[in-house]
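Quick one, tokens below. Sequence please?
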């Protein structure tokens, strides 16, 4: 039995949808899905339905694309909770559900988490408007600014602060097992390596999560969002970026199965410098 992970399926693209349709069944393995399946409720749920047909247990956390408001639909927290309800109807575990123990000789607790971002990965001392202007100097205009609404919170930063505080309280109440934490956005700023669009960093996480690996018994932290697949070790904790990405970010001839990352047992992975994987 394995715990596998993938993120950023972006099923609005035909080639990505076709790759999901060609994915074989994994009747003995569980799957972490780190968000960004799509934008519309229909696309997201179609993708999760396909995955639940292939894996006996699926875990999900939202990415920014899932939280976008399209065609006058639900906004902010209401959109998120509608997604949670739909996931539960499919049997998919969400960040709002009890954590699940991954069985084995060394049990671990699987913890989907939704922390959002607050622009603190941008230049220090800049407010929101200044960060957006700084990014625009290099033609970086994040769609989140138009489509990701924080309602009823006044700002995305306030929503992020609330999510981080709520998640930390849950981590603190866990029974002491090692944690497998799955987020969409990376929890350490140093993991944001996006040389193609370096000024997109403010939309990539929050410094509020920097202490998580030292405060909580995290064994592996899984994220997507960056579309730059890599394995890192930081102070004994393994970090996995598992995004598939847009069609230009992965090799179609390899198929989606090639991009399922083994999180557990992960016996062949030993601490080493950053490993990029294609």
């Amino acid at each position: 039995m394995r715990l596998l992970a993938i993120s950023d399926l972006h099923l609005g693209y035909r080639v990505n949808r076709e790759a999901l349709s060609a994915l074989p069944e994994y009747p003995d393995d569980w799957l972490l899905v780190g968000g960004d399946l799509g934008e519309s409720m229909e696309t997201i749920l179609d993708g999760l339905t396909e995955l639940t047909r292939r894996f006996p247990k699926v875990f999900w956390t939202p990415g920014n694309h899932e939280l976008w408001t399209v065609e006058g639909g639900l906004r902010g927290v209401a959109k998120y909770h509608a997604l949670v309800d739909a996931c539960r109807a499919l049997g998919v575990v969400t960040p709002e559900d009890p954590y699940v123990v991954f069985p084995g000789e060394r049990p671990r607790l699987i913890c989907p988490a939704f922390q959002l971002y607050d622009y603190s990965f941008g230049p220090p001392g800049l407010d929101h408007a200044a960060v957006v202007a700084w990014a625009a100097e290099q033609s970086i205009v994040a769609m989140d600014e138009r489509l990701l609404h924080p309602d009823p919170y006044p700002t995305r930063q306030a929503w992020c602060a609330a999510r981080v505080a709520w998640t930390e309280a849950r981590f603190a109440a866990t029974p002491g097992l090692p944690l497998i934490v799955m987020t969409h956005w990376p929890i350490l700023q140093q993991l944001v390596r996006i040389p193609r669009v370096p000024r997109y960093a403010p939309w990539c996480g929050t410094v509020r999560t920097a202490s998580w690996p030292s405060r909580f018994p995290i064994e592996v932290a899984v994220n997507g969002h960056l579309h730059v697949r890599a394995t890192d070790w930081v102070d004994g904790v393994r970090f996995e970026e598992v995004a598939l990405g847009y069609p230009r970010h992965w090799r179609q001839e390899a198929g989606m199965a090639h991009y399922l990352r083994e999180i557990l047992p992960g016996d062949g992975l030993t601490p080493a410098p950053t490993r990029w994987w294609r």
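The chain has one domain: 3-115+142-191+212-276. The first helix runs from residue 14 to 21.
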